[in-house]
Amino acid sequence: MSTSGVVLEDFDSHFSNRFYHSYLDNSVNINSSSIAAAAALVARSMYILASDDSVVDLITLNTIKVNVSLVEELIGCLLTCNPGLSCGLVKRFISPSNPCPSHYVGVFLDDPSGTQLPSYADDTSRFVWNFLADRTNSAGNKSSCTGKCGDEGEVCVGAEVEGGGRCVVSTTRYVPAYSTRVKFEDNAWHVLPANSSDPMGAADPVWTESFWNTIGLRVYAVQDPAYDWLILLAGLGITAASYCAVHFGRAYISKVAKLD
Description:
Elements: H1 32-50, H2 58-62, H3 68-78, H4 88-91, H5 123-135, E1 144-145, E2 154-157, E3 165-169, E4 182-185, E5 188-191, H6 225-259
Antiparallel strand pairs: 1-3, 2-3, 4-5
Helix pairs in contact: 1-3
């Protein structure tokens, strides 16, 4: 296979969602059929790329389909609080600490401990890891486990559930997001240690909160000073005219009343 990598993007030019940041921006308005169609397109594209220069078997290509009911189940598990991470699919792999899935993504300030059983992984990350490892595993001894597996290339799937998990051969790995606070020393890149005087990492070159709302800017126009003077003079003129109208009106009414 000559393709070294594939990058999947959410959109081509700009993000467009008419429900974005409204009370309608929820799982009810997620089109599961569109997600399934996109997944089928990606799977078939990967099959074509994996075939390299050989002739693509159209019959096999058309048999690549997506389980729509599974997509809908994943939407309910990962995008809602009911059932959320309390759904049966999630509980097959992990013991969630909270039924509401968290979509928070952060950046490490320091070098994490490991990438197979990391302590920093939240409920959503652990479920996705276990789910993908289970779906992409190849044939193995599938012996029971409660943590790490003995054979190289094996990972323990479902280690958190009652009764333990099982060892499967899978290349699924956690990929931590490191800070760009790195230095090149001894022919290797090293993550700079966290600064105790800067616990929030405010001095970090890359500092972002991916789950924040859209950043906006509100601008207030300032009128020219001459316009303010014009408004003041107009107000004084209207006040003077009103006073004169009242004064002369009262005098006229008094005069008419005397004539009667």
